[in-house]
């Protein structure tokens, strides 16, 4: 990790309210010229996707001291085999029972919208079940599910319609509605979106480990919504609105970077068994990839997922800006484990709109 990002505390408080080191100026980004443009242009991907003079990409230079491992495993269905498949993928990353033993583990799925019989919208409940059961077998002190769904204030409706409610009841998993949690103040460790401090749910301080259980989807503003964008759902709606309008107005790519640097999740697992293409993250159509993508560096995980969806990560504004700061996106800096990428790419289509063409150019 870059030296200007503070190390995690050894205490059972993941995020301190005490000020950390002052964030660098946005002009210190990988592509300095790109951050001088307005937020609206950045949201449309018009700057961070440009190559530097001479055709050499600055991200390649910025990542010279970075590396990360990402595991891709095949999964054909949402069934009882998922736990074994997850164990296989995590073992490829060197993660075993020692990682979870005695820890409080927060699972953060994407439950953005209550949609009955639409497995492409939300993180599938069976993925959540399999992850929770695996960590329980590994003697975690506790495993619980927490989410601040974006579009509906009624958490019970979201749990029922997403089929998460029955799974929680069957497994005895606790659910925390982050939208209405008590909050504490934490410094924005990068400051790209101009918001100096975040109101974060107190539940984050309860967790020793935070796992982003994202969905593999396209997004009509950010291009893609994966493990980093999934962190929007951690912020309480009582502070940021539905659907977290404060973050949208401050800039989606900027807020993705700031939240990733501030919350610092420990693991990402992307549900790509059935993803979404087209008008994501809500109105798109199902796209089967039959994959789970996982790793401890969210930037590398999202870059790998982008490639599996047929995208160049350098064309996705938040990934290009994260390069060299939060993690690597270059193929040479990401160690591919388990399944190779070749032969697994499934081209995900974007909404047909002029502002999205830069993501494919």
Q: How would you explain this protein's 3D organization?
A:
With 361 residues, this protein is an alpha/beta fold. The chain is 27% helix and 20% strand. The protein contains 13 helices and eleven strands. Strands 1, 2, 3, 4, 7, 8, 9, 10 and 11 form a nine-stranded mixed sheet that branches. A two-stranded antiparallel sheet has the order 5-6. Strand 7 and strand 8 form a beta hairpin. Helix 3 crosses helix 5 and helix 5 packs parallel to helix 7. The radius of gyration is 19 Å and the shape is globular. The two termini are 30 Å apart.
State the main characteristics.
single chain, disordered N terminus, 27% helix, 9-stranded mixed β-sheet, 11 strands, alpha/beta, 361 residues
